[in-house]
Amino acid sequence: MQLDLFREIIVDNFAGGGGASTGIEMATGLSVDIAINHDPAAIAMHKANHPDTEHYCESVWDVDPVKAVRGRKVGLAWFSPDCKHFSKAKGSKPKNNKIRGLAWIAVKWAIAVKPRVIMLENVEEFKTWGPLDEEGQPIGALKGKTFHSFVKSLKALGYEVQFKELKACDYGAPTTRKRFFMIARCDGKPIEWPKPTHGDPKSLEVQAGKLKPWKTASEIIDWEIGTPSIFQRKKPLADNTMLRIRRGIQKFILEAENPYIIDDKACFIQHYYTHQGSETRASGLDEPIATIPTANRFGLVTAFLAKHYGGNYTGSGISIDEPLHTITSKDHHALVTAFLIKYYGADIGQSLKGPLHTITTKDRFGLVTVKGNEYKIVDIGMRMLQPSELYAAQGFPSHYIIERDHTGKRYPKTHQVARCGNSVPPPFAEHLVKANLPEMCVETTRYTRAVAN
Fold first, then answer.
1. Which domain holds residue 276?
2. In angstroms, rounded to a whole number, what is the distance separating the alpha carbons of residues 251 and 352?
3. How far is residue 180's CA from residue 97's CA, in Å, rounded to a whole number?
4. Number of structural domains found in the chain
5. How many beta carbons lie within 10 A of that of residue 279, not counting itself?
6. Which residue positions in the chain have pLDDT lower than 50?
7. DSSP structure class, residue 30
């Protein structure tokens, strides 16, 4: 391979399945030059999508920066060190100092080859990086000490350093995922933080047309995939699952001002996290989806509707040609039947601990009013979101290869989802690179052309 010693190169450490690399390519039109990751499966997925990249399947510590760049100047070095031992999702489990220390690899590259720009991504708790006690727990009094030493080390090497937290939904990905970003540069140019392109639909900026509204969960759903009835499963759903579904239906359909309805189905996203209490872990389809974890925790719930005529109905209902998420439901509380009052009452009729599937009168779950027309809930369906939907929510392009590696070996869905949950939403990298390295960017890439076509 002939090397261009005059072109600055881009290096993606902790490359994973390619989220940051994809975002960088969205901005520059070129594959990253070097990708490093210790996981063979992650590298195999990366190769499938970035075949022109030089791949190192080994620990970041085992890669010699000088030998890897081979005399080329580094314009950008991206780092996404393992975040699990900083994240609050880790809970009270012992933390690992070795894994928490992976970020120091950025200093190694700064010393060895002096990248012009360094970008680092992690969870927001990264700023609390400090020593651990003998039980693997952060020492409260020393919270943030190691982080400040890390920043100081980069500054001592001639870098200006800034950091900030960004939300993916503000840059065009339909997820609320929030991440910590650090930018360090040594070329004397100012650090630029990308301006949001999207915002809350209720905000003045969106209403004035200065920002686009956040992309929503509804945009990533494959509506061709059905949702099987929760009442006709070979193995009944767990009681806790039924309870979550009940709470979601109550909040997002029966009590919602604007229930999301498409093709006679009222829909919402159910979150399956382990938790206690009466909190409703679900979200509407008219908002960005929550942060995507490494295990699939999202289920699409649909309440099938039929046109309601004074207690009787005929046919399969009326067709709705487009999502009616802007339609207001009026007086829905007054339309709750005695059966609903009985079911949702805490002390009347069936206990809240009872499984929903024991109720047989499915055609009387409740009434929803849309444009003055009453609809009866006649069935409830539920399915887990598919990996392709989760990758779309993360901001990956639709043609991104997730089901197989570069050799054609297929991945199980659990592996696809895990790699998605660990990935950097590509729009983050795209906008950060465009803001700070415009000289390396192009107007159109294979991703923008694909969208245009």
1. 223-385
2. 15
3. 20
4. 2
5. 11
6. 1, 275-278, 308-365, 451-453
7. S
